[in-house]
């Protein structure tokens, strides 16, 4: 895996990242830090990556279990240390998973497996932060097709 990050120039703190898979994303700083608020902060990207990694795992685990998962959203709330380096100290993952007749136990197990075994981002962030999670299940069995 590879990535290149390049400063976009002297007029602010905008950085552009190019990934090895051929994608581009921007990151910027807050105005009080010299940025222009044109893109997410780097730490926001890190938090989003953890959410994406965990949600990916949950959907994949449920699909492999032949469950009829139709949606997965994870909302993250993070707390950071007061002093530098301002690492994450606590991250809460609130999953909302929807599907037809999904067993709550299967969804909770998928989330647990993601955090304990598969999600590389959670494994790394868990070195400095307490990670906890909750699950809300939405049964779409009664919705019209």
TrEMBL record:
Which InterPro entries does this entry report, sorted A to Z?
KH_dom-like_a/b, OsmC/Ohr_fam, OsmC/Ohrsf
Q: What is an example of a Pfam family matching this protein?
A: OsmC
- Where do the coiled-coil regions begin and end? none
Q: Which domain of life is it from?
A: Bacteria
Provide the protein name.
Peroxiredoxin
Native species:
Corticimicrobacter populi
